[in-house]
Amino acid sequence: MKAILCASFADEPQLQIGETIAPTPGRHDVEVAVHAAAVSFMDLLMAQGRYQMRPELPYVPGTDAAGVVVSVGAKVTRFHVGDRVACGNWHGAWAERMVAPESSTVPLPAGVDFQTAAAVRYAYGTARYALVTQARLQAGETLFVTGAAGGVGLAAVDLGRHLGARVIAGVGSRDKAAVVRDRGAEHVIVYTEEVLRERIRSLTGDRGVDVCLDHVGGDVFAAMARSMAWGGRLVPLGFACGQIPSVAANLPLLKNYSVVGAYWGAWAERHPRESAAADEALMRLVGTGELRPHVGRTMSWENFAVALGLLRRREAQGRVVLQVLQPGQPLNGGSS
Fold it and tell me: For residues 304 and 309, what is the distance between their CA atoms, to the nearest angstrom?
């Protein structure tokens, strides 16, 4: 089969389309003919060798895909050949075929296309785990999301709105303000142009925010460590700026707020049934239009370098999706 292959880790990822052996599903796995695959910041970090895990080289990047089931393992009960699904794994999505555990595969509602479906599971799964399971966000609370125009950030804005929160979005440039407002942000802070702490104080009447989801780290995290409301929840999700921050213990003590991590991928592996149920609930909300994933760019998978460049330059808004197979297109090379 054809796949995008990473041969070595480098700041400029060394990727090319080539031939590789199709993965073989295990007893609890689903094999999917990939029609669309998402591109995430995690994919970029992994190809650079900067993520928490390093796959054995060469490997196929990509965490999330959507397509049609072509085979299932002997112990799989929820899926059959021909089902339309979204699926995820630590890597392997940027290929004609992907194998994923049954627990990280979700059926698609009739009205959800492959491009949209590929953008849901990682982004909205992370946002839901952070907001609902970890932060226990309540209707009426104030939520601040940094990196809000990215895939996970925009999902958090959308989901926060759906949960009834007052959403404030933090973005790095003014050209990203429109997309976060469209997904439900009541206010937008351009933290490269404004004094973050002062703006938060102004918008919250000096109270601070109840929940902060931070993807940026560095100075942004430091500012939010001093901008939390009494009993708030500060949730680090990543460190896109490259600086891993720390927090002085007196700050959460003085306002009785919590600092709680949200590593969704590890949680999903440890709690597969709960994760699968959450995936299905989220996809149903996408199907009814109550959640609205934003696919900012869809491009042919031959343009993977362009897609990664958008993420490296922080130009992506929402999810970037690679088109792999078209409906009705046969797989090149069969299962070899």
Answer: 9
Examine residue 334 and state whether it is found in any structural domain, yes or no: no
Q: What is the CA radius of gyration of the chain?
A: 20
Query: Tokens standing for 273?
Result: 């049934």
Q: Tell me: do 132 and 251 sit in the same domain.
A: yes
Over the stretch 84-140, which tens digit does the pLDDT of each residue have?
A: 999 999 999 999 999 999 999 999 999 999 999 999 999 999 999 999 999 999 999
Q: Give the DSSP letter of residue 131.
A: I
Domain hosting residue 175, numbered range: 126-265
Does residue 61 fall inside a structural domain?
Answer: yes
Neighbours of 235 (CB within 10 A): 24
Q: How far apart are CA 25 and CA 105, in angstroms?
A: 13
Q: How far apart are CA 167 and CA 173, in angstroms?
A: 18
**Whole-prediction pTM:** 0.92
Question: Hey, what are 305's tokens?
Answer: 């370098």
Compute the Cα dihedral for 144, 150, 151, 152 and give only its sign. Answer: negative
Q: Is residue 114 part of a domain?
A: yes
Which helix (H) or strand (E) covers residue 31, if one does?
Answer: strand 29-39
Tell me the C-alpha distance between 317 and 152, whole Å. Answer: 10
3 and 21 in contact (C-beta within 8 Å)? Answer: no
